[in-house]
């Protein structure tokens, strides 16, 4: 299979899964009536949510492209100045050099060139007291979690079909989206296992992926339902927002990846190519998404604008997880116990850690890699399995190698992990079994969330 595949035109006859409910002319169809809270992947891109053609005059109708760029640049500078003032204090004047430095960093981050070498700051001696978050509503395995941009709230999803909102500082439950029986008229909760969760960069939207194939959109502040996206024919295994936007990517057991626009609350397109269920995905600033193809043994980078994809091969078994380090490198893990470090420019791993979490004494097979957390644009990442330890790793110079920093003891399946944006903490979901199945169960484990301070205050 070739490394680079140029996408065909949007009218190309891609094969679809047997149960896919999209028709042949899925590119242009009418939206539902305004009272219908569902958005399907066959909706018309050119029709507004009220079912009519958008003929309203925009305030920016006469604005030139150059004027728009200038206006947005001014807004961006004002926002940076505001953030810097918050750090220094309202009365202090912001140094122009700070703004210049921030602009340079933001540019490097978005272009994938920014690299922060911080891993040496993390040592076992700096670990703080680990806190445990648990509640009676989430009795079954916690499968996924995400954190608000201000690091104040955690949102966790479980096989109970329950979403819990936690206050990080207090370690308390502050809200719940319950499990409910399916009701087309009113959405009050979820009616199947929750397998994926994501929150937008501005904390405006909380997105939940269900085993039922539905994608539910909620307001993270008050946990009120906003919309339902339908289009996938099987369970949702991953959801992710493009950074600083409301572009959403979803992947599914139906072998497809879909693109959605939450500003317009509409379906954009479907990406075909994987030969087995898509187990996970990740995205950053660019119009790109990286996906893992489970048992088809491939990782793919989809270049949305160019309508093309890159195919990577290196694992010998099921691929469970993939995470971006920056816009040039990413890490994957799976059933073969390997952690593979990849460059966008090479179709084979640039570095491989074999048996990263050791060998299972019962079956003499490598312990699966269940989850990975990356500190974006930095030389630190974490991996989780079910061997009783979370491992922290340091990336080498130029992100082309890795070495173990230290282990953090933690029993159970580590199904999901995320670093807080201030890089001080690691938040982990622990469960009795794997998020996508029950191949074996550890009954000694309590289904919970672990809040791990990495840099003691």
Automatic annotation (TrEMBL):
PROSITE patterns referenced in this protein's UniProt entry, alphabetically: WD_REPEATS_1 (PS00678), WD_REPEATS_2 (PS50082), WD_REPEATS_REGION (PS50294)
Record's GO cellular component terms: nucleus
Key words, A-Z: Coiled coil, Nucleus, Repeat, WD repeat
WD repeats: 135-167, 187-228, 229-270, 271-312, 312-352
Residue spans of biased composition, Acidic residues class: 34-46
Positions of the UniProt region annotated as Disordered: 1-66
Name of this chain's protein: U3 small nucleolar RNA-interacting protein 2
Organism (species): Cryptolaemus montrouzieri
High-level lineage: Eukaryota, Metazoa, Ecdysozoa, Arthropoda, Hexapoda
